[in-house]
């Protein structure tokens, strides 16, 4: 976690980035490649730490499943250290946009500064978790990687308030253009039970709970992928346990806003 002074400095930097015009130009480092997903993954500007995550996260398969295309406008919900934000930025290109949504109190300035410098089409939206919201009819894709269970999790220490999940999904539905998509990737949790207790104990969620939440909000389940399935995961272990960290069974769901 960053210090108060770092958060203040980051907030000022991000506020400036939001106010500054974004010029439609490709990053100078972008490799020429017929496949924009392959080009994004091969981008020589990506650092070694993020490249090391590729084997377990399988970004080529995931981005293809998410149906991201040049020119799309994407919200990376819970953008973390920017792993997917910079990949999306390369894929959508200079005519697209990526909004990196995160909790300002937890921002790692050192990780984000070089990403923002290299990708003029990323707009950081780092605010306190309780006020995170997306503008109406502004997006083609909302992408939530290992973040959906946190809508059911609360922590004073880590600045996660108790949230109204249905209200968040109503905002997501309104934020998408007709035909827009939401992709949710998360750690598979035990079936049934209280999702808040499961999120607190294991940092997981039952995929059937996610499907029910989205159906209630008006979304249609449009696809599932087994790309990140891990048979050996018992589903009842904390995801940060060294015995399983990085090797959890993860579901991948795609929902669509019809119309």
UniProtKB/TrEMBL annotation:
Signal peptide positions (record): 1-24
GO terms assigned for molecular function: methyltransferase activity
Keyword terms of this UniProt record: Methyltransferase, Signal, Transferase
SUPFAM superfamilies, sorted: S-adenosyl-L-methionine-dependent methyltransferases (SSF53335)
Record-linked InterPro entries: S-AdoMet-dep_MeTrfase_Alr7345, SAM-dependent_MTases_sf
CDD domains: AdoMet_MTases (cd02440)
Protein name: Methyltransferase-like protein
One example of a Gene Ontology biological process annotation: methylation
Superkingdom in the source lineage: Bacteria
């Amino acid at each position: 976690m960053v210090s108060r002074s770092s958060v203040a400095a980051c907030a000022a930097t991000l506020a400036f980035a939001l106010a500054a015009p974004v010029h439609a130009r490709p990053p100078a480092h972008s490799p020429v490649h017929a496949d924009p997903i392959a080009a994004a993954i091969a981008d020589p500007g990506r650092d070694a730490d993020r490249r090391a995550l590729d084997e377990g996260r399988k970004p080529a398969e995931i981005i293809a499943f998410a149906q991201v295309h040049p020119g799309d406008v994407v919200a990376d919900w819970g953008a973390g250290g920017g792993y997917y934000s910079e990949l999306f930025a390369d894929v959508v290109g200079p005519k697209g946009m990526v909004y990196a949504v995160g909790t300002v109190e937890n921002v790692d300035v050192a990780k984000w500064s070089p990403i923002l410098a290299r990708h003029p089409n990323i707009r950081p939206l780092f605010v306190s978790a309780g006020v995170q919201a997306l503008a109406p009819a502004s997006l083609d894709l909302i992408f939530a990687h290992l973040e959906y269970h946190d809508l059911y999790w609360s922590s004073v220490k880590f600045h996660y308030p108790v949230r109204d999940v249905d209200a968040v999904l109503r905002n997501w539905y309104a934020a998408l253009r007709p035909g827009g998509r939401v992709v949710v990737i998360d750690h598979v949790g035990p079936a049934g039970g209280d999702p808040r207790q499961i999120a607190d104990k294991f940092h997981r969620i039952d995929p059937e709970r996610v499907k029910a939440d989205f159906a209630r909000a008006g979304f249609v389940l449009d696809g599932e992928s087994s790309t990140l399935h891990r048979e050996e995961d018992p589903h009842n272990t904390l995801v940060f346990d060294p015995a399983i960290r990085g090797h959890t069974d993860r579901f991948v769901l795609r929902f669509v806003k019809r119309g």
